[in-house]
Amino acid sequence: MSNKKGFTLIEMAVVLVVIGLIVGTIVPLLVTQSKTARLKEGKELLRTAKDEIIGYAYQHGCLPNSTDLISSRTDPWGKKIFYRVAYNGTGKSLSCTNPSNNPCNEVIVNSSSTELSVDGDNNIAFIVASGGPNHNKQFKWDFDDGTKVGQLTTYAFGKEVDEYSQDFSRPSDEYDDLVEKVSFSNLYGKIKQLCMLNPRPDPSPPPDISFGKNISEFNHIIESQNGVINVDEDSKTITIGGSDDLASGCIWYGHDTGPCTEGVCDLGSGFRAFFRFKSTHQDTSNDSEGFASGFTFAVTSDTESPPETVCGGNGAHLGYAGTQPDYEYWIGEPKMGVEVDYYPSTGGGCYGKNDGLNNHAALIYWGNFYKGNPSSPLENLCDDNRHGAGGTDNKNSLNPDNSSFGYSGSSGVTWLEDAEEHTLRIDLEYNSTSRNATIRTWVDMDGSNNTQKAMIADPTVTAETNISNSFKKQMKKIRFGWTVGSSEGQAVELSDFKINFLDYNSTNST
To answer: Are residue 232 and residue 304 in the same domain, yes or no?
Structure first.
């Protein structure tokens, strides 16, 4: 007969107590380890999301509209990660509306005017975050303009709310939010680093004509005295002005590149142009009279006259209006220009230009029909660049004035004459059927150097005109270049010019 003995009740109790002690020790540890692991996973996921967003900015030149455009979308607790993008000074989101082909060559966003702050940190470009295990996002955000202030994510009766409105958060919850904030300086640093490590060629077709490849072809130069126009092929710059006396000059493109033959180009439906400019001297006066200078980017259809003679007069004529000293040639109608005037338009030289003391950028066409009769009254010499001049018949296109079309100015009188680099983008659209022409210009606008794309931002100055039927044929062929009127030693350096004609395939450029 075998001797079998089972567990006694006391032994069973001891075993249960031991098991309980083990469970009580190990399970909380496992729970803690699981929570810690998830928190670690959440932090890593947010860092991955942050890096993906920066990578997206490197690829496209702007921030993604939502996390739907990246692979890291949900946190370890199954909730969609929180993502917000800053606004710039114009109130527009920095997320993508017009992705770039090569952000390494362009300014991505305006770092000087952001309104987004998070938990008291300002100058934030974007944020990715999670509410953590309790799903209650308790960090705070606001926009500096005061229009959007509140708890980022809140709870209302157990339902998650993601709005700007009331704070329904549970103050008793432990703060376990996971937050990744990326400042503008960090964003720019990362993009710059990526661009240095992985430089990418611009896949866009090259501009039809540019200083980079064609500066020697800007060879039709007219000067009232030597030294008013200087081309530096090494630095790819052109300097205009600089005379101590009243002087004028013009420089026109004059070669066979793109849609142009000997500098005469097919206008088609228009063009997009861009260049940088800066004055060589800073005017610190309160009336912008410390130096006297101004220039235009001009388009003229005057293909009849030899290009070496197509230029205007000195002083307020800016090389665009009036005549040359011999009164034989001029920049003939129809013509259009964007004027950058460093000297106050207060009724001197060109009568009726009473536009205040500020430097300004304006659109000009042509005024009363005039071919340079020296016996005519002085004011007639200025009609083709006098603000508000001209009439409505075939050869009297009305020039814009400052009240109806707008000039660009600022509280600083000499805002353009500060010896700092400025940018000018000009888009000309022309309908040969209706003969309507529209010029839009952007002064100091980020992203305006991409002439492959239309600008989305509102222009600094814009105006429309209708070309008379008698001028229709002449508008088919144009010249383009710069004119200048200078005195008091002021000069202007032009750089980084590029132009794309809308109807021309740049890849065919020679």
So the answer is: yes
HSE, CB side, 13 Å, CA atoms: give it for residue 32: 6
Q: Is residue 181 part of a domain?
A: yes
Residues 6 or more apart whose Cβ sits within 8 Å of residue 234: none
Taking only Cα atoms into account, the Rg of the chain, rounded to an integer number of angstroms, comes to: 33
Per-residue pLDDT tens digits for 260-317? 999 999 999 999 999 999 999 999 988 888 888 899 999 998 776 777 788 888 888 8
The residue-averaged pLDDT of 412-433 equals: 92
Structure-token pair, residue 37: 């692991």
Nearest to 155, CA basis, from 146, 147, 166, 145:
166
Query: What contacts 92, CB < 8 A, 6 or more positions away?
Result: none
Going by C-alpha positions, the residue among 377, 283, 370 that lies closest to residue 320 is: 370
CA distance 190 to 162: 30
pLDDT at 161: 38
Residues 330, 374 within the same domain: yes
Query: Are residues 371 and 263 located together in one domain of the fold?
Result: yes
Distance of CA 270 to the CA centre of its chain: 20
Give the residue-averaged pLDDT of 471-477.
86
- Indicate the number of domains in the chain: 2
The CA distance from 416 to 418, in Å, is: 6
Domain ends where: 141, 167, 197?
A: 197
* Pairwise CA distance, residues 356 & 350, whole Å: 14
Q: Domain range holding 125?
A: 38-197
Residues whose CB falls within 8 Å of the CB of residue 295, separated by 6 or more in sequence, listed in order: 240, 241, 277, 318, 319, 339, 340, 482, 483, 484, 485, 492
Beta strands (DSSP E) in 287-365 are 292-300, 335-341, 345-346, 354-356, 360-364
Task: Check residue 150 and give its pLDDT.
Answer: 35
pLDDT tens for each residue of 180-217? 888 877 887 787 777 777 766 555 678 999 999 999 99
Q: What does pLDDT average to over the chain?
A: 77
d(CA 414, CA 417) in angstroms, rounded, equals: 5
The SS3 of residue 461 is strand
Residues 304, 390 share a domain:
yes
Please check whether residues 243 and 102 belong to one and the same domain: no
Given pLDDT bands bounded at 50, 70 and 90, which one contains residue 378?
Answer: very low
Residues 223 and 134 placed together within one structural domain of the fold: no
